Amino acid sequence: MSALLKFLRALPLVLACLAGAATAAPIQVTDVLGRQVALPGPAHRVVLAQARHFQVLSLLAPDPAALLAGWSDEFRTSFAPDYEVALKRFPALAQVPVVGRHTPDSFSVERTLALRPDLVVMTATFAGLAPGQPASESPLIGRLEAAGVPVIVIDFFIRPMENTVPSLRALGRAIGQADRTEAFIAFYQRHMRTVAERLADLPADRRPPVFVHAHAGSTDCCNSPGTGTFNEMIAYAGGHNIGADVLKSATGKLNFEYINARAPQVYVATGTGSRKGTGLAIGAGVSEADARASLARLIEANRLGALPAVRSGNSHGIWHAFNDSPLHVVFIEALAHWIHPDRFADVDPAGTLREINERFLAVPLEGTYLVDLKPGAGPGAR
């Protein structure tokens, strides 16, 4: 085939691309730090500094894999079962370059720039910023922006109740998915509003003590949320996080004596199911029976059987990755049901997850993501 013929055959595609580039309108978004970030058009080559946020992309984009220019290795390692499911749906994920682990010290600016991204997404903590510290003081953001790469800062972890919607809106607009994003935001706000309205008249003395056993069984007893993150969700759902009384960071460890002395009325173990034989078996590909058996084993192994929550049957397991994602709406509904079953008898968090799977997630969450120690004790279901 002559060079001229090849050129003529390719010409329509070239002209279409040029036309698209010419008509793409500039985009300006506001991230959670209040920064105005300008992009020449929708981002098509995105680097995720923390690959856990792939599932946020999965909410907002019908083909999240096509947007990825690079990511950290943590989705493949820390969330291995979920990665395998995503890989089956989007085989191109196997070819996404890794720019580091999920820690700032391992993140390679040079490798990132070599991928020619048109957007990098990270959290303020990853950028090395303390609460209230301006983005201009982040060397990492500074190096990327000096090279002409826009950076947006998102947060679903430190202040999830405040930052989830602005984070979604910033990322959704940046990737040209504003309508899809607004549809999910409306869904999210409707469900969150239901929980808030039903607890509006809750007296302060009706907030029972709750113990969230984070990454249960994968470490010595017992990891717990402190301030922020799960603490905000527990409070939103009408409970009192016993970890927040002694832990002044986002996470920490509670000793056995303290947990027993606080006599939690609700016990919730979390896990990702990524390490076989340790921790809570939950998440992608896990049956309800296996999740329940795993929950019973770790309660026994950690000598937690005497807790009021366990004796009364108010003990549960849930997928830990709900915590750094707008999918925490499922966790909050489950908590609300477990803490105040009289007020939330008709709320079905498993049903909420099914609707999210059907309407929004490009990679649906299929497996057991919340479970009760005793069948029928709560809303846990596949």
Automatic annotation (TrEMBL):
InterPro entries: ABC_Transporter_SBP (IPR050902), ABC_transptr_periplasmic_BD (IPR002491). The keyword DNA damage does not apply. Residues 45-343 form the Fe/B12 periplasmic-binding domain. Keywords: Signal. It holds the Pfam family Peripla_BP_2. It comes from the Bacteria. Gene3D superfamilies: Nitrogenase molybdenum iron protein domain (3.40.50.1980). Residues 1-24 form the signal peptide. The keyword Signal applies. PANTHER family: MOLYBDATE-BINDING PROTEIN MOLA, VITAMIN B12-BINDING PROTEIN. This is Solute-binding periplasmic protein of iron/siderophore ABC transporter.
